[in-house]
Amino acid sequence: GKIFGISFHALPQSLVPEYGYIPSFLVDTCEYLEEYVHTEGLFRKSGSLVRLKALKSKLDQGENCLSAALPCDVAGLLKQFFRELPEPILPPHLQEGLFKAQQLGDEKKTATVLLSCLMADRTIAALRYFFNFLRTVSLRSNENRMDSSNLAVIFAPNLLHSNENEKMSASTEKK
C-alpha cells in the first residue's frame, strides 16, 4: 500500500485505455483534479502541511481518502509524489539531452522522441498520461491561471529532482 518514497516501478498500477499501466495514485489524483481544473491557482496555492501529512499517511496505509480532500491538498500531494520518488521520473542520464533537445528548432520533437526511446515503456506511458493531464489544465488557463509556462515552473523541480535534495541550479531551472 505504500505510495510515497518507493520506486516508480514498484507502485500499484491501473490499466488506462490508450496509455497502458499507470501508477494508480497518479490516475486517482489526475482524475480527481480534472473535476477542479477550473480552480484558480491549482498547483500554485499550497495546501495545509498538516492536512497533507495526514492525507499522505492515510494513503500510505491504503486508505481511499482523496474524494474528501481539498483540491489544493491533492495538487500538493501530486507534486510531493514526484518529488519523493527515489529516482526522478525523467532519468538523470537523459536530462541534459532533453534540455538540449528543447533548444533545437525544427528537430526538437524528433530529438525528444528519440531520447524517449531510451526510457522504460512504463515511464513513457506515465509521462504521456501526466502530460496530457497537464495539457488539460493549461487549456483552462483563462480560469485557473495555470498556463504551460506556469506548470513547467511548478513541475520541473519535482520531475527533475536530484537525489541529494539540493536546490535546482539557476541554469537548470531556466532550461
From TrEMBL:
SMART domains: RhoGAP (SM00324)
Molecular functions per Gene Ontology: GTPase activator activity
Pfam families linked to this entry: RhoGAP (PF00620)
Biological-process GO terms, alphabetical: signal transduction
Cross-referenced InterPro entries: ARHGAP11A/B, Rho_GTPase_activation_prot, RhoGAP_dom
Rho-GAP domain ranges (all copies): 6-175
Listed name of the protein: RHGBB protein
Organism encoding this protein: Tichodroma muraria
